[in-house]
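Narrative summary of target 7.
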Amino acid sequence: MAGNIQRPSRGRKRHGAMAEINVVPYIDVMLVLLIIFMVTAPLITQGVKVDLPKATSKPLEPDEKEPLIVSIKADGSYYINLGDKAQEPIAPELVGERVAIVLRATPGTPVYVGGDRTVPYGDVVKLMTILQDAGAESVGLMTEEPSPNSPDKR
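Modeled conformation, tokenized:
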């Protein structure tokens, strides 16, 4: 029986499984991701802020303030829905000045762009840039609901 007695090992203690998670690798990964996002975020936010409408978009909720609508026709002429001269074209260099005057007088006025379907995209972006430089916080794009019989539902 003397051979069956177990003696404690000297200098070594037995422990159970270690239940701690080593978080150092996770912290390293998080720091790398943070650096990547900090570097790429300014690159992503450049440009004109546009929420492109879908073809079957919902109409906007009525706002207390009457919106300022700047339209651009296929021939490149600009129109602003101001007073009794809403149907008269306005010179492109005056659009920004007139919009800035309206926005200074009534801050927070919603600004929308109504563009003809055949107007080049670059002209619409140029107009939106002029409006933002004039002080518009955000610029919306106007659309019309396609008719159910229309073959063009874009």
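DSSP finds three helices and four strands in the chain.
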